[in-house]
Amino acid sequence: MVIQLLVAAEGPDAAGTTVSTTIEVNTTDPRWPTWLVDAVTFRAQEAARRLRDQLIEQRAIASDDFVPLATVVPAAEAGR
Q1: How many other β-carbons are positioned within 10 Å of the β-carbon of residue 56?
Q2: 80 within domain boundaries
Q3: What string of DSSP letters covers the chain?
Q4: Residue 77 pLDDT
Q5: Any bridge partners for residue 21, and if so which?
Q6: How many separate domains does the chain show?
Q7: Residues 24, 43 contacting (CB under 8 angstroms)
Q8: What is the pTM of this model?
Q9: Taking residues 66-71, what's their average pLDDT?
Q10: Which domain holds residue 43?
């Protein structure tokens, strides 16, 4: 199974930016649900960082006032 994770931001002027990644899941491995949670959490944090960098580059946000998603979303614990 392949899962695509897409993180998007859109401004009030309808200009936006997106970042995406794919995750391949081996569903024959009995630990796949735990692995999937860990992989999605890690990839979402990385996507949030990339999205932040893109927005800063576009001057859509000020880097001093921006709070990245990865700092406000708790990290998933193994087995969750």
Answers
A1: 13
A2: no
A3: -EEEEEEEEE-TTS-EEEEEEEEE--TTSTTHHHHHHHHHHHHHHHHHHHHHHHHHHTTSS-TTT---HHHHSPPPPTT-
A4: 60
A5: 5
A6: 1
A7: no
A8: 0.53
A9: 63
A10: 2-72
pLDDT at 5: 79
Tokens of 69: 């998603």
Encoded tokens for 61: 């946000």
d(CA 72, CA 17): 21
Rounded distance, CA 64 to CA 22, Å? 30
Cβ neighbours around 31 below 10 Å, total: 10
Structure tokens at 75: 């990290």
CB-CB contact of 5 with 20 (8 Å): yes
Cα 10 versus chain centre, distance: 15
Tally of CB atoms within 10 A around 52: 20
Domain-located, residue 46? yes
What is the tens place of the pLDDT at every residue in 45-55? 887 787 778 77
